[in-house]
Structure formats: structure tokens, C-alpha cells
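seq:
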Amino acid sequence: MDISIKDGTIVTANDIFRADIGIRNGKIAAIGHDIVGMENIDASGKYVLPGVVEVHSHFESAFGSTRSIDNFFKGTQAAACGGVTTIIDTVMPKLDESLSDAVKQRKQLLDSQAAVDYALHVCLPDAQASYLEELPQLLNAGIPSFEAFLFGPDAQMVHTDASLLQLMDAIGSAGGMLMVHCGNQALLQSAAQRYPLSEPNAFAHYPELCTTQSEAEGVFRLMTLAQASRCSLYLCQLSCRDALNQALQNHPLQSRIFTGTDLHYLTHTDQAYLGSQPRNYTVLPPLRSQRDLENLWKGLEAGTVHLVSSNHWAFTQEQKKLGEDLASIPTGFANLELLLPVLYHHAVGGKHMDLMQLVALLSTNPARIFGLSRKGSIAVGKDADLVVFNPLLKKTMSSSHLHGESDFCLYEGLELQGYPEMTFSRGQIVCDNGKFTGEQGAGQFLPRSI
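struct:
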């Protein structure tokens, strides 16, 4: 064996047991006892988890007049140090750019910079014929998931019902999946106009950009269209009880409908918009009420919310000052490095769920839903994407200790009980006790089928 991880408590979505793991040529070659490698790592007293699969990240991604601050190297370096070994990034084609050209350019950036493995979604701004003609080619190239918006700050990216139905028919026929951001564009634009930034209490109205009712209306509209299509759907960034309930009411569709939420909807509420730095908390959908937060936790516990992502979209505080109205302030946070430790702190430490459920939400379910057959679990033959997690290690969160470029942290000052100690990407140690030890450009593109 190249490496043996010895005497750790292995956690999968279905089991917890103590054993050694033998790694050879980047794969898990053996699981058992008394496995000896050329390098032997003592994991006694620690958990060994499958690497986290992040399904929704935005590196070097345009927003209005700016771009998210983390490039692919800094972003995947942060990923590695948080136990994230696979990311799915989004390709956003420019106007008059073919999808294949946009994918090619994005892959060139990732191939030269990514420190962990990656896959791609493609965002489709509309259902123009040239885009639809390219779908089979993209699926053949291992890109089966596509992204669409029912609302957002860029009106050019928002689909009409007719465009969305056409898109769903084409993607369903090709055997792909459509990821949808649910809301109501008319209500977003109306709220942005009603509450100009010059008003002292403008941010108290930030949640009105996408109320819980408008998010639920978007889900209802999507589910209605889905009755006429065979397309698989992923409802991303679900943030409230009303939207989740609307998704669950369509029982005949459940075999091809998947739901996910983001870390911040489980840890923060709309009270942040009444504080001293409300711009730092801008995100769409907005942060919700305590009741919605609690209901999302119930959905995770019951298995009706299938996964949790970070939706990493990192900006600086200076960038957060941009925007001509509430809707055009850059949205998102640098949460990727904290996805595993913060969710462990709240989910396992907060008695919401056990370790096996945590692994399902962060690794096994994302890999299964998005067709990452080599990832998401600990089994012989799988990639040796592993995290040695120390449940006794305490760390106080600070943006200055993280590996990305953002200069603020939603969890500043929070003391976490439990933290990743070592991360393996295909058998290579890419983080060791908080120090990045990987290589720029070592990440590989992962072709997928769904």
C-alpha cells in the first residue's frame, strides 16, 4: 500500500466502524485491519469521512460590474482545507458565445488552477435553438446538468414559462437534469424599486426581494410545468418552509425531483438585515425567519431535503458596497471551507442528526444525484477522497484563518468543536493540520452521467 490510515472510525452513510484504510494508486484498495503502507497515518480517536462534494460553487464568476474574489486555485485550496474534495462549478456563457466554447474556456482555467477534482454545470440564459442543439454534445462530454433562473438581478438570465418548458423538454429528452432557482422576477423588481438604498431602513425590506410566498410560487410554477415533462429537476437554494412544502406536494414527481439548501439558511436569519452590516448578508433568496430555519432542519432530519451546499460565491466587504439598488448588491459568501465543520457543529453537536446522516447530506447524496460514481463514499475501488476529522479539535472562526480571499466571515468568533485535520484527494494529502499541501492544477475534470 502507498498509504495506510490506521485505526480510525470510518463513517459512511450506512455504517460506522473502526478499521484501517489502504490506499494504492489514488484508490481505496483495502478496508480492514493490520493494513500496512509505505506511509502509516494514525487516525485513532478520529473519524474518517468521505470527502465532501460541493455541488454549487461560483469561482471567478461575474456579478454586475465585479467578479467573485476567489480564483479557482484559491477557491479549491480553501475547499481542500475544509475537507471538500470535489466541486461542481457553473459555466456562464457570454452573449453570442456557444456553450461548447464557454465550457472549453472554463475547463482551461480549472485544469491549470484547480487543486481538487471538479465537474461542471452549464447555465442556460434562454432556450434559443443553438443552445438546445448543443445539449446532446455536452451530455456526451460528461456534462449532464444545467442551470436556470426564475428570478434574479440580471433580467436577461430569467426564463419565461415558455422558455423553461422548452428547456425542460430538451434536457429531459437528452437524459439530463435541470437545476432551478425559484422566485418571482416581477416581485423582485418591484421591491427593488420601492425601497431605494438612499432610505435609512432599506435593508429591513431586503427579504421582500424574494418573499417566502414568491419562492413557493416559483416552485409551484415549476412543478406545474414538470407535469408535462420527463426532466429530472434539482431545486437549489431552498430557503423556507413554504417552498419545501410546495415541492413535496407533487408526489408523482418525487422520483425525479431533488432538493437542496445552503449552509447559511441553517445558521442565520433575516435579523441580520437589521444589524450594523446588512450588506455582508445579501443573498438570494434572502435569509429567512427562525421558523423557516427550524423547518429546514426538520426537512434534513426527515430526508426531504437531500443535500446541503455552500453556494460559495465570495466577495470582499468593499465589493458588497456595490449596487445601484437592493437587488444589484453582490450576493453570496465564502462558505466553502466551513461547510463541513460548521454543519458538523450545528447538526451533530446540535443533536439534529448523527454522523451517518451528515455524510449522506455532504458526500453520498450529492455524488449519487449528480452522477459522480467515483466519489461520495468509502469503499474499495472508490477514489481515495478522505477526511480525517478530529471531533476534539476546537477552532475559533476568523476570516484571517481561512484560505480564500474574502475579508469577512459569517461565523466570525464562533468556536467550533470538531474540525478537519487532514484531507486526501485521490490519495494525495492536500491539507495537513490547516496547511494546504496540494498542488495547483492537480484537480481532474470528472465526466458524469445522470
